[in-house]
């Protein structure tokens, strides 16, 4: 990374793809809620701004998921191939969740949302149910279930997107630090508890390391 701090490297990649995706998600929110003809909109009742937030949080979690997958591979072509497969596998559990949805507890539904594609699918399902009820997803019913028997809310899906993004980012940060590849200096597995990692090394320690390196080479 040519001396660039690791977090700046990740931030640059995140910013690049976030800009691309946020434009796409804004267009998607518009296309879903714009009336094209007398037949109405794709989503007649749902709030465009809430849909945009839903799509954007999904985009962020998707970026972080790709970061998480990428740190397990040293070659870009292998990471791309494996990432595509893992991405679609990430969606498969939704089929099992959908079949057992009515009998699942709130905690189980929330846990299934730790897979971002499952969270997206459940969010889309809630959007469809609210549309069927004639209200659509709105900021006013964000924390309400689609019925008195269902306590799973659209607001919880949004929260889980944030949780997913944090977990994926945490995994990527840890794995990259411990297994940095051919050109990095690996950290010990317990590095998060080291004060030197967070506060930096003292001047005396850095000088000693430089002298040791010079003596060896």
Q: Which structural class do you get from the secondary structure elements?
A: mainly alpha
Strand content: under 5%
Helices and strands, in order, run as HHHHHHHHH
Radius of gyration: 22 Å
What is the mean predicted local confidence, pLDDT? 86
Largest sheet: none
List its traits.
9 helices, mainly alpha, 217 residues, 2 domains
Give an overview of the whole structure:
The chain has 217 residues and is mainly α. It has two domains: 181 residues, no CATH class; 28 residues. Helices cover 65% and strands 0% of the residues. The C terminus is likely disordered.
Give me the secondary-structure topology.
Layout: H1 6-33, H2 48-70, H3 76-89, H4 93-100, H5 106-112, H6 116-132, H7 154-178, H8 195-199, H9 203-216
Helix pairs in contact: 1-2, 2-6, 2-7, 4-6, 6-7
Quick rundown:
By secondary structure, the protein is mainly α.
